[in-house]
Amino acid sequence: AAAEPDSPPDFTVYDTTGARLYGTGPQRLERTERDQLVVVSPITDSATETVVGSVRVTRPRSDVAAEARRA
Q1: 37, 58 in Cβ contact below 8 A?
Q2: pTM here?
């Protein structure tokens, strides 16, 4: 997924226990970062709808605020 042209610049993939499989995010999902906008979404098996992991995407809040001011 990281090689896809529309993939976010910084994302992390976790297994069902919250352990990091790929990316630069925290090793476990419990940790939060106050200066980051963090979105976590489940990854499901399309055949069974079973959750098989999750993806975490972050952006610095300052980047989001700057884009909002320019809009």
Answers
A1: yes
A2: 0.56
